[in-house]
Design goal:
This protein is α+β, with helices and mostly antiparallel strands and about 280 residues long. Helices cover about 25% and strands about 35% of the residues.
Length: about 280
C-alpha cells in the first residue's frame, strides 16, 4: 500500500504515535499512565483490546474421572476454568490460527492434571501442567474441600482465548478518565458560590484561600470532577477536558501489565493494517 493510500485510509495526523507517561506502577500487576495527545476513539480502542482482545491462557475443557466430593462435576469444572494461568504468547497460538486448524496440538493447547485424596483442601497449586510456563498464577485458590475417603481426579485442557468470548480469557481490568484542565481566577471579594463549591466537592480537591479557589489535591485526575462542575462558579473556575487520558490497568495474573500494554498496541497496529488492506481490495 502506498503512503497516499495509507493517508486516505487513516490520516497522517490522526494515527501518529501518542505519548505515554508513567504515573505509578505497583509491581507487575497495576500501572497508571497518561496517554497523551490522543482522542477518545483511540483511548477506547486501547481499552477494548486490553480487556477483550488480548489472548491469554485458560482451561477450556475438563474431564473428570473421579469425584466423590460434595460438589458436582460442573462446579469443579467451573472453578478450574476460572483459575488464572500464566501465559506464554510466544510458544502458543490461538486455536483458530494454529496449523492444526483447532484440532489440538502442542502449539495451541496444554494439559493439566490433578489427583487428590481427602481429608484435605485441594488448591490450584496441585494442578500439574505439562508445560512449566503454564501454571496457576494464584496457587492458593481453593478448588474443593475433600473429606476422609473422598477423592478427585481430573485432566484439563487449556488454550488461548479472548475476553470478548468469555471472561476467563480476560487478561485484566482497564479503564480511563479524561485528564481535566483546571483554571481558577481570584475575585475582588469573597465568592459565596466558590466557597460552597469547594465545601461540597466530594473529592476534597479544592481549597479556598484569599478569595481564590486553589487546587489542593494534585491527583485530581482520579476523580470525575466534571460531574460536580455544574455547581461551580463559571466566573472563577473553569474545568475543560484535554487530549490526555489517564489509564488505570490491572492484570489478573496471566500477563504482567507491561506485556499487556505492549501486546495490545501490537494488536491495534495489526488490525489497522488489515483494515487498510481490506480498503485497498475494494474496487
Amino acid at each position: 500500500m502506498t503512503d497516499a493510500e495509507r493517508k486516505a485510509v487513516r490520516g497522517d495526523e490522526e494515527f501518529k504515535m501518542v505519548e505515554i507517561n508513567l504515573i505509578e506502577k505497583k509491581g507487575n500487576e497495576k500501572v497508571t499512565f497518561v496517554l497523551g495527545k490522543s482522542t477518545p476513539a483511540k483511548a477506547n480502542a486501547l481499552r477494548r483490546v486490553l480487556i477483550g482482545e488480548l489472548p491469554v491462557m485458560a482451561v477450556d475443557t475438563v474431564e473428570i474421572s473421579k469425584n466423590s466430593s460434595l460438589l458436582y462435576d460442573e462446579m469443579i469444572a467451573l472453578r478450574v476454568g476460572l483459575i488464572p494461568l500464566t501465559t506464554d504468547l510466544k510458544s502458543y497460538n490461538l486455536p483458530s490460527k494454529c496449523k492444526c486448524e483447532g484440532k489440538g496440538c502442542a502449539r495451541c493447547q496444554v494439559k493439566l492434571s490433578l489427583k487428590a485424596k481427602g481429608p484435605c483442601t485441594v488448591y490450584a497449586s496441585e494442578l500439574e501442567s505439562d508445560d512449566k510456563a503454564i501454571k496457576p498464577f494464584y496457587p492458593k485458590i481453593p478448588i474443593v474441600h475433600l473429606l476422609k475417603n473422598q477423592s478427585l481426579e481430573l485432566e484439563a485442557t487449556a488454550v488461548l482465548g479472548l475476553g470478548n468470548v468469555h471472561a476467563k480469557w480476560s487478561a485484566g481490568h482497564a479503564y480511563y478518565v479524561q485528564y481535566p484542565s483546571i483554571e481558577t481566577k481570584e475575585s475582588k471579594s469573597p465568592c459565596a458560590k466558590c466557597e460552597k463549591y469547594v465545601q461540597n466537592c466530594p473529592a476534597a480537591i479544592f481549597d479556598y484561600k484569599n478569595n481564590k479557589v486553589v487546587v489542593k489535591d494534585k491527583n485530581y485526575y482520579k476523580w470525575n470532577i466534571a460531574e460536580v462542575y455544574a455547581d461551580a462558579c463559571p466566573e472563577h473556575i473553569t474545568i475543560t477536558p484535554t487530549n490526555d487520558f489517564v489509564f488505570f490497568v490491572e492484570s489478573f495474573g496471566q500477563l504482567d501489565v507491561k506485556s499487556m500494554i505492549v501486546e495490545s498496541v501490537k494488536l491495534l497496529q495489526e488490525q489497522m493494517e488489515e483494515f487498510a488492506e481490506s480498503i485497498k481490495a475494494i474496487k
